[in-house]
Inverse folding.
């Protein structure tokens, strides 16, 4: 082997070994606080994966340190920001159970719900995660409603939005049955909207559709009852188009 090549290779190996040794020494000599601050730097710069790695090391290697709780919470937040919502929900729940008295426990509960909200799909698809999100927002309100009024208000608005989505799914199912010429099944689904989601926007349409379908089925008593309920419950909230449809229905069938 050429002596110059051998010496160059030897020098490269020595330098590489020294560099690895220095990096290892730097990592092991950092205090917990310094490692936490490094994790915060990565977090603030948007390097979520590196932040998760550092925060997880702190949580596992120094579980009794003053930084362990915040490291666990921030690791969950970093996962949320990468849109790995399932893992985020698991981590936020673990935080709340591990540190139930921590000042971040209410926010962790809220973020469990937000994680499931992120998993809630289009209205046409399975809505299991939508229901999970509603349950977790409701849990937040039960446990922490007086502690963070802003989050409580936000949770209430999310619940309303998600209930509208569930009601709309049943409304679409009812309309599908109408297309299949199964008006009895359609009415059953419209009535389910009324029973389970009476306080949502789709309920207004469902009540009116019951009246229209029953009139089309020549069930005038049921149609009259449905239109009366529409006027009693929803006339003020109904759109102008819905009011006009109700008026035309009453005129056409003398309801």
């Amino acid at each position: 082997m050429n002596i110059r090549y051998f010496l160059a290779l030897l020098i490269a190996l020595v330098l590489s070994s020294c560099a690895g040794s220095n990096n290892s020494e730097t990592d092991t000599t950092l205090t917990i606080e310094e490692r936490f601050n490094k994790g915060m730097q990565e977090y603030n710069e948007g390097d979520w994966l590196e932040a998760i790695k550092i925060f997880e090391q702190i949580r596992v290697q120094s579980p009794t340190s003053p930084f362990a709780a915040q490291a666990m919470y921030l690791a969950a937040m970093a996962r949320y920001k990468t849109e790995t919502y399932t893992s985020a929900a698991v981590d936020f729940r673990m935080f709340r159970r591990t540190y139930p008295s921590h000042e971040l426990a209410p926010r962790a509960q809220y973020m469990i719900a937000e994680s499931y909200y992120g998993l809630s799909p289009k209205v046409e698809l399975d809505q299991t995660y939508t229901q999970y999100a509603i349950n977790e927002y409701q849990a937040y309100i039960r446990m922490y409603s007086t502690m963070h009024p802003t989050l409580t208000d936000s949770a209430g608005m999310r619940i309303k939005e998600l209930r509208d989505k569930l009601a709309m799914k049943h409304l679409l199912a009812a309309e599908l049955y109408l297309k299949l010429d199964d008006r009895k099944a359609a009415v059953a689904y419209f009535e389910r909207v009324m029973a389970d989601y009476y306080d949502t926007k789709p309920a207004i349409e469902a009540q009116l559709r019951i009246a229209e379908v029953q009139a089309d089925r020549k069930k005038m008593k049921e149609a009259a009852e449905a239109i009366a309920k529409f006027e009693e419950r929803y006339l003020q909230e109904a759109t102008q188009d819905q009011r006009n449809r109700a008026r035309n229905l009453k005129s056409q069938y003398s309801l």
Observations:
- The mean pLDDT is 90.
